[in-house]
Amino acid sequence: MLRVLLLLPTTTYRTEAFLSAAHQLEVDVTVASEHPNTLEHLNPSALLTLDFQDLPGAAARVMEFSRDWPIDAVVPVDSQVVVVAATIAEALGLRHNSVQSAAAAEDKHLMRQLFEQAGVSSPRYRLCCLDEDRADLAARVEYPCVVKPLSLAASQGVMRADDPDQFAARVERLEAILACQDGEPVREFLVEQYVDGREVALEGILTGGTLQVLALFDKPDALDGPFFEETIYLTPSGLADDVQQGIARLVQQAASALGLTDGPVHAELRLATDGPVVLEVHGRSIGGLCSRLLTFGSGLSLEELIIRHALDEEFQLPERQSQAAGVMMIPVPRAGRLIESRGLDEAKALSGIEE
After folding, report:
1. SS3 255
2. Buried (b) or exposed (e) across 104-120, using 16+ Cβ within 10 A?
3. What are the residue ranges of helices labelled H in the chain?
4. What does pTM read for this prediction?
5. In whole angstroms, what is the distance from residue 147 CA to residue 126 CA?
6. What's 334's DSSP letter?
7. What would the DSSP string read from start to end of 295-328?
8. How many DSSP H helices and E strands does the chain contain?
9. What is the pLDDT of residue 10?
10. Sheet containing 210-219: order of strands
11. CA atoms within 13 A of residue 215's CA, in its CB half-sphere
12. What is 169-199 written as a DSSP string?
């Protein structure tokens, strides 16, 4: 039986979805996490503990494991395991994105450089350091701007500033966020041009470098800062066909600039007055629980589709089922503790609400 190695960080929301997908496809699964795993329904011999930061060590450990339990595909679930997944797949001789392209998709400065070199429409940017004189830096920045870390996901540390005073406050806040991360504190960050316009997200999959669009999401709420927490995703998109085709062409160009060739792609774009602008492109699928919106062919989940594609390059990707779907993420307005949620039964009783 075919076996897939799922790299599942202990912080991911998607463990259940990917394990269910593997079960539905009747493939063996090995789960690798950075901490010892206690999933009771899995054979202990199908569990691995890997140091995701130690790329050679993780690859060597999987190579040793695969002598007894051969692995046919490696699937990273979240951003923090994309690079180690490429490293492991390379060591095993499996189809994969190059380690360099996986790393470029997770380094926002390198991503910007590669986009610039390839002529991909993306925001103007400046690499900055927390050790620079901030008053001097604030005087040289183009406003409005966006301050962002070189990594991190889910818009952590991404903030808009409209003037020098706001800029100083945003940089101070970013410094505090970066100080809370594991490992050596990062001192560099990006300052980017703020791109006005509607925001969209594209979910796709690459086969031999060619992109197939799986879904295009509209984000109807204005994401104009100062923070960029997402609220609503809707699909299919209501944009005109030619606009959607232009978005797909730009994401294909961006993926090629990064060197991505195989597996899922998640892209975020803004629709400026003169056309789409790529904010980011990642070599992974959509995060959180948003994948529940997507069903393909005769009922395949996104996770099933990703595993099938990883195991079989010739797998013909089915089209997304055509019904409209949406998800809402509730913004957190202030610090505190969630005490209760009200109205769930009434909401579930509404026609079209699945969960």
Report:
1. helix
2. bbbbbbebbebbeeeeb
3. 15-25, 55-66, 82-92, 99-104, 108-118, 134-140, 164-179, 241-258, 302-311, 344-348
4. 0.92
5. 10
6. S
7. EETTTEEHHHHHHHHHH-TT--PPPBP-S-EEEE
8. 10, 16
9. 85
10. 275-282, 263-272, 198-207, 210-219, 232-235, 325-328
11. 30
12. HHHHHHHHHHHTSSSSPP-EEEEEEPPPSEE
Q: Chain-centre distance of CA 134, in angstroms? A: 31
Low-confidence ranges of the chain (pLDDT < 70): 37-45
CB atoms under 10 Å from CB of 180, counted, come to 8
What pLDDT, on a 0 to 100 scale, did the predictor assign at position 322? 84
Determine the pLDDT at residue 39.
54
Question: Is 146:191 a contact under the CB 8 Å cutoff?
Answer: yes
Angle at 299 between CA 3 and CA 28, to 5 degrees: 10
What does the buried/exposed string (b/e) look like for 240-270 if buried means 16 or more CB atoms within 10 Å of the residue's CB?
Answer: eeebbebbbebbbbbbbbbbbbbbbbbbbbb
d(CA 93, CA 76): 16
For residue 156, the one-letter residue type is: Q
CA 26/CA 33 separation, integer angstroms: 22
- Three-state DSSP at 87 gives helix
The residues near 190 (Cβ < 8 Å, ≥ 6 apart) are 108, 109, 112, 125, 126, 127, 128, 146, 147, 148, 149, 150
From CA 190, how far away is CA 188, in angstroms rounded?
7
Tokens (6 digits) for 257: 């600039």
Return the half-sphere exposure (C-beta side, CA atoms, 13 A cut-off) of residue 195.
Answer: 23
pLDDT given for residue 38 in this prediction: 56
pLDDT tens across 97-135, in order? Answer: 999 999 999 999 999 999 999 999 999 999 999 999 989
Contact assessment for residue 29 and residue 7, using Cβ atoms and an 8 Å cutoff: no
Residue type, 148: K
Alpha-carbon separation of residue 37 from 10, 15, 240, 303, 339 (angstroms): 8, 12, 46, 21, 30
Q: State the Cα torsion 121-123-127-129 to the nearest 10°.
A: -160
List the alpha helices (DSSP H) in 203-318. Answer: 241-258, 302-311
- What type of residue sits at position 130? L
Q: Could you check whether the bond before residue 264 is cis, i.e. omega within 30 degrees of 0?
A: no
Chain centre distance of CA 62: 24
